[in-house]
Every structure is written in C-alpha cells, then in structure tokens.
Amino acid sequence: MHAYRSHTCADLRADHVGENIRLSGWVHRVRDHGGLLFIDLRDHYGVTQIMCDPDSPVFSEVEKVRSEWVIRIDGNVKARDPELVNSKIPTGEVEVFIRDMEVLGAAEELPLPVFGDVEYPEETRLKYRFLDLRRESLHENIILRSKVISSIRSRMVDLGFMEFQTPILTASSPEGARDFLVPSRLHPGKMYALPQAPQQFKQLIMVAGFDRYFQIAPCFRDEDPRADRSPGEFYQLDVEMSFVEQEDVFQAIEPLMRGVFEEFGGGRPVTPEFPRIPYREAMLKYGSDKPDLRNPIEMQIVSDHFAGSGFKIFASMLEKPGNQIRAIPAPKGGSRKFCDRMNSWAQKEGLPGMGYIFWRETDGAMEAAGPLAKNIGPERTEAIRQQLGLGVGDAAFFLGGEPHKFIDVAGRARVEIGNALDLTAKDRFDFCWIVDFPMYEQDPDSGEMDFSHNPFSMPQGGLEALQNEDPLGVLGYQYDIVCNGVELSSGAIRNHQPEIMYAAFEKVGHSKEFVDENFGGMLDAFKFGAPPHGGIAPGIDRMVMLLADAENIREVIMFPMNQRAEDLMMGAPSVPTNEQLRDLGLRVIPQE
C-alpha cells in the first residue's frame, strides 16, 4: 500500500464497504459523542468521515488529535446507518473505522478558524493566507480559477492561436500607470521595468509573422488598489491577431467569452449575442462606459421640455451653450418617500439634490406631483412622461448642467435606483461591446489634449481624419468587453503605420523625437513591413470574480496583497541590505 493513501478523501463510496484503505489529510473537525470519536478528514478533493471507539488500538492517540493536524489513517470502510447518511457530500454513505494512525504534522493553536464561515479581519486572513486558503469557499474559488484558465487555453488553441511568452524585464513605457522599476547590477544607474502589459511585444510578434498569439500574461502596475483591481500585479488573456478588422476580433473572442461563462456560470443565462454600443451612446443612456445591462433604466435628454419653462434653475441653465437636462426614469419609484430618499442620496454625493416628478392616481385620474411638475405645468410634464414611457406609480429624476460634470453621479444614481427598486436582474451575465471610443479628450481647465483610451490604436479614417477633422471628433478602432457593469477587457485595432503614429502623438503635443525615443523598437519594426493587426486582453481576475460571485478580487487570487500593496505573509516590500544596495550602486534617501 502507498505510504500515505490508497484513496483520496473524495473517493470512497458504498461499493468500497469492507475494504481496508489508507487516507491522509487535515482534521477538519472532531466530534466526541460520549466516547465515540468522529473526525471529518479533509484533503484537496473532499471530506470523509472517520470514526474511532475504545475498541480501536489507537483510541488514546486519536483522542489527542486537534483541528488542522495532518494525519494518516488506516481503517475499514463501513456503511453508515440509513438515517445517518449525509447526502451533502459524495462520501456520505460510508465512514472509516480507524485501525491505525500516524500524525504527519501537528498544528499549533490556529490564528483563524478553517471550519465554518466566521469572518476575520482581512489583515489576519492575508498574513495567514495558507490557512485562509484551506477554507472551503476560498479553496473552491482558486480551483475555479485554475479550471477557467485551463478552459481558456484549450479554447484558444482550438481557435488556432499559439501561446508565446514575452519578457518580464523590459523597458519603461508611458502607458498611463506607474511602472515598477528593477535596478540593473550590470548597468549601474539604469533600470528595467516590469511590463504594464505585453503591448509592444505582442505587436512585434505580429510583425515577426506569427498570425495568432495569446498568453495568460502577468502585468505589473504601481497603482492604487480597489475592489476589482489587485495592487501590483494581475493576469490577463493577452491576444493579438494579424490581417484582421475589428469585427474579426469580435468573432474570435465573443464565442470564447460566452463559452467560458456558460461552462462555469452554474447555469446562469449568458447574452447570446453581445450588443455593440457606441461610447457616446453608453455615456448618454447609462452614464458609464461599463454599463450593467441587467438594469433596464436608460437615461434620456429632456432639455426641450425645460427650455423657457417656469423652472428657472433649469431654464437659465439651458441658456448657456453645451448644457443639458437629462432624465433618469424610475419605474415603480412613484412615491414621495422614494423621491425624498433619492434626493438625500444625491446630497450625500455632493449635489444640492435632484429634481423629480412622480405620477400618481388621484380621483381616478393620473396626476404629476413634485416641485418640478408644479413649476413647468401639465403640458410639459405630460410630454416628459410620454417621452420616457412612464405611467402611474413611476417617477423620473433630473440632473442638469455640463454633461461631463454630472454624468458620473447620474450613472451612479441609475445604479442606485435600479437596485433600490429591484429592477436590476440577478443570476445572469449581460455582456456588451463598447465601441467607437473617441481618440482624444480635452482637459476642461487647461485645454490640453490627451489620448482618451489607447495611444496605439488606429484612428477611424486614418491619416486623413487626423489631418482634417476636429481631434475631439476622431474615433478610434477601440473596444471594451463589459459584463454586469464590470469592464473585463480593452482592445483595439493597432496603428501599424509610422506616419499615422507620429500624427496621432502630435495631436497631444508629442514630437517625432518623443515617439522615437519611447516607442522606437516598435516603430523600427513597422518600417520593415507590418501587417494590419489588432487584439484584446480580457482580465482573468475579473472574469473569475464574476463567476465566483465574489465581492472583492482578492477572493479569487491565491496570494494577494493588502490595500497598501503589502504582502503580509512574506513581508514584502522589504528593506534592502547595504550589500544589496552597494551591488546596485544605489542608496536610499529617507523621505521627510
């Protein structure tokens, strides 16, 4: 017999009754039923109940066992009494009577429990992550992650993609986030950078003639953490394809995403065909470029109904060019209590409040109520109701001014209303593509132009658009995948022509010399025959987070850092020794 086990803790069934077997695992919990000891023995695969009575030759040793000890047991498989069968676990029809036991690893008193769902401070959980990972829900999340990655790899190969690895030590590249820098010992004073993404390398792979590339790529960005972003590092499905247009990328990636979510989504419906929503339409209707389409609320412009009206705040606001009034419909929200609740919510968000109208039935007739209704009159109120498709028991909320100043809070109000009124559907995955991103954006204060999305994207209309159109009107071949309000991916058809690249960067004030200095390796390659190419990079962590119904991305990462980008378990970042600093030709200047 094997030194440690003949079966795993998930193997035994009724047809094993009578067999002598060997198991090894962790003591999940111990129960003493008046001298009869029961132990739930756990390994990676499952749980088996083992039992011991005073007739067992190792009863006295078994009495000493405590939670999370690692033991090896030999015993006989017995059938449980019918009334004691545990249908919740695959091994629930049997138990094992212990004949022999060996303690393989005793455990000290635990700093946090493994059995049960007791909530412990996150700092404790991260410091003792190896214990936290033994808990069933987190263990299952990490297994799910492994299966998702395996499925993705298989699907990509079936689609004709080949996996290649790109360098980890590379050159710094201004891509929007801060780089992690690695000092070079052989080249004192110089630094490598960890890649924010394999962007330039995957494009060079296309130039080198490899048609379809993918990689489960580690990416490193020195940026602040949040619930859906891990500090320091994350993983993405990095993809690039040659001789493709935007639609070709969609046709390759959409079935893959749908298939993965159908495979691991637990039967929850997945969007059969991902709608394509232009960026400006998404911002107008949803107040976000990552809309949760499970929420049916769509905002609309209602400026015409307030222009010249008796509601002077909105009427005077509309006299300034560029200002708008937008309405957020609230089906089933037609009560003063709910309207007051949302008004209070707006005040907590830093607004003076939100105007509202709600429709109720009075003496058998529909009546519009609220301060706005009184100020603008029944004709305008009725026109708003008809435009928004509302009726008795519904409401609408209104925000006005320069759209870029209120659109963010309007989007959050849409989410708040959808959740509060139970309009947002549950237990399904609603995908969409966000397309037609503007190439550029302008700082409202300084007037300076900058890239709004990806600087390496091909502008729609090419060089002619850059030379002849208002930069703020130029769109890029850029696209995002969004699911349930979470951005899973960004991608683009790349700008593979040097003259268009120079022109694109010139619009944001960067000279030809700047482009050559920062992206010279890629541009040099483009000068030797570059195919049209494009790609995308769905985030692995966020995909698994959605599939696992996790609230925080750290629940699907095996060894995450805390909110301050610290590894509490390994003690990183750590203070370098003087010897290490001397080798690198560096010294640390204390910060005041």
Question: What's a concise summary of this model?
Answer:
The chain has 592 residues and is an alpha+beta fold. The protein has 16 helices and 22 strands.
Helices and strands in order, then pairings?
Elements: E1 20-33, E2 36-42, E3 47-52, H1 59-62, E4 70-79, E5 94-105, H2 122-127, H3 129-132, H4 136-158, E6 162-163, E7 181-183, E8 191-193, H5 199-207, E9 212-221, E10 232-242, H6 246-264, E11 276-278, H7 279-286, E12 300-301, H8 312-317, E13 324-330, H9 336-348, E14 355-362, E15 365-369, H10 371-388, E16 395-401, H11 403-420, E17 431-435, E18 440-442, E19 449-451, H12 462-468, E20 478-483, E21 486-493, H13 498-506, H14 512-526, E22 533-536, H15 540-547, H16 578-584
Parallel strand pairs: 3-5, 6-9, 11-17
Antiparallel strand pairs: 1-2, 1-4, 2-3, 4-5, 7-8, 9-10, 10-22, 12-13, 13-16, 14-15, 14-16, 17-20, 18-19, 20-21, 21-22
Average pLDDT taken over every residue: 94
Q: What is the molecular shape? A: globular
Radius of gyration: 30 Å
Number of strand segments = 22
Query: Low-confidence spans: pLDDT under 50, at least 5 residues?
Result: none
- Tell me about the largest β-sheet: 8 strands, mixed
Q: Report the structural category.
A: alpha+beta
State the end-to-end CA separation.
65 Å
- What share of the residues does DSSP label as strand, in percent? 15-25%
Question: How many H/I helical runs?
Answer: 16
**Main β-sheet, spatial strand arrangement:** 6-9-10-22-21-20-17-11
- Approximate helicity band: 25-40%
